[in-house]
Design brief:
- It contains 11 helices and 11 strands.
- With 274 residues, the protein is of the alpha+beta class.
- The chain folds into 2 domains: 4-67, Arc Repressor Mutant, subunit A, CATH 1.10.10.10; 77-273, Endonuclease Chain A (Endonuclease, Chain A, 2-Layer Sandwich), CATH 3.30.870.
- The chain has an 8-stranded mixed beta sheet with strand order 4-10-9-8-5-6-7-11, sandwiched between helices. A 3-stranded antiparallel beta sheet has the order 1-3-2.
- Strand 2 (49-54) and strand 3 form a beta hairpin.
C-alpha cells in the first residue's frame, strides 16, 4: 500500500539523484512491480517525479525515475521571469501566452488565428492524449462553447487517460465541476481530478508531446483597444523542452491548489445558509 511514509521515502530518494526502479524497490524492500506501481502513481498524482525508459523493448531496458518539480533556481532567465509573472497572475488578461510562444523554435510551433472561437475543434486536440491530459482553465466555460467536448473527455477516461484540471471553482463553475467528476463513477475509476486555482493560463497539455495555449485579444481590453475585431489565437507547441516546462508549471500550481470537492461542499453550505 502506498502510504504517506512510503511516498516520502520515494520522493526523498529521487530528489537526491535519478535512480532506477530496482533501486527504489531495494530501498522500500518491495518487488520491482510494486515499486513501479508506486512511482507511476506518484508521478500521475503529483508530477513531482517522472520516469524514462532507456532501450525500451529490449531485454536490457532500464527504467529511470527523476525529479520533475519546477525549481526556480534552474532553467533560463526568461523562463524564471515567465514563471514569476504566471504565479502572480489571476486572470487571463494578466499574462500574454505569446511571451512563451516567442521563445519556442520555429520548427516546433504553430499558431491558429480565428475570429470566432466556436470554429475551433478542441476534440481534435483532446483525442491525441494517450496517457495524460493536463488542463488549465478559467472557470470551465469552454465546455459550454463546445458541448461535444463532454463526450470526448469521457471517451478519454474510458481509455484510462489520466485527466487533471486546474480551474476556478466557484458559483459559475460548480455545476460543471460536479458534472466532470461524475464521469469517474460511470467509468469506474478516478480518471478526473480537479483543483481550484486562479491563474492566467488557458491551456491543454497532451502527454509530454504537445501544448495548446489560447489567448484572446479583444478591443474591449485596454491593451488591444486599437484592434478592429476580436482575435482568438491558439499557440501549439511541440518542442520537448517547452512541453516539459509547461508540465512543471502546471504541477507547481497544482501543488498549491485546493481540492475542488472541498470548495463545492463549502459553496453548498453557503447556499443552505442563505
Amino acid at each position: 500500500m502506498l502510504t504517506r511514509d512510503v511516498e516520502h521515502q520515494i520522493l526523498e530518494l529521487v530528489q537526491k539523484r535519478p535512480c532506477t526502479i530496482q533501486e527504489v524497490a531495494q530501498t522500500l524492500g518491495r518487488n520491482w512491480r510494486t515499486a513501479d506501481k508506486y512511482v507511476e502513481r506518484i508521478a500521475q498524482e503529483s508530477g513531482l517525479i517522472a520516469t524514462r525508459t532507456f532501450r525500451k523493448g529490449s531485454r536490457g531496458a532500464l527504467k529511470v525515475v527523476y525529479w520533475n518539480a519546477l525549481d526556480k533556481q534552474t532553467g533560463s532567465a526568461y523562463q524564471q521571469r515567465l514563471l514569476n509573472r504566471i504565479l502572480i497572475g489571476r486572470q487571463k488578461e494578466d499574462f500574454s501566452s505569446f511571451d512563451i510562444y516567442q521563445f519556442v523554435p520555429e520548427e516546433t510551433r504553430e499558431a491558429l488565428v480565428l475570429d470566432d472561437e466556436s470554429k475551433a475543434d478542441p476534440c481534435e486536440m483532446l483525442r491525441r492524449a494517450g496517457e495524460q491530459l493536463l488542463s488549465l482553465s478559467g472557470n470551465l466555460s469552454w465546455l459550454d462553447l463546445y458541448p461535444k467536448a463532454w463526450d470526448c473527455i469521457e471517451e478519454l477516461a474510458r481509455r484510462h487517460v489520466s485527466i487533471k484540471v486546474l480551474t476556478r471553482v466557484d458559483v459559475t463553475s460548480a455545476e460543471k465541476t460536479e458534472r466532470l467528476l461524475a464521469i469517474n463513477e460511470r467509468v469506474g475509476w478516478d480518471a478526473i481530478a480537479i483543483r481550484h486555482a486562479e491563474h492566467p493560463l488557458r491551456a491543454i497539455i497532451i502527454d509530454d508531446r504537445l501544448v495548446s495555449i489560447k489567448e484572446v485579444l479583444s478591443p474591449s481590453l485596454s491593451p488591444y483597444k486599437e484592434l478592429s475585431h476580436k482575435m482568438i489565437i491558439f499557440y501549439r507547441i511541440s518542442d520537448h523542452d517547452w512541453v516539459v516546462w509547461m508540465q512543471k508549471v502546471f504541477w507547481h500550481l497544482w501543488e498549491q491548489s485546493i481540492d475542488a470537492q472541498m470548495r463545492i461542499d463549502a459553496l453548498k453550505a453557503l447556499t443552505k445558509t442563505n
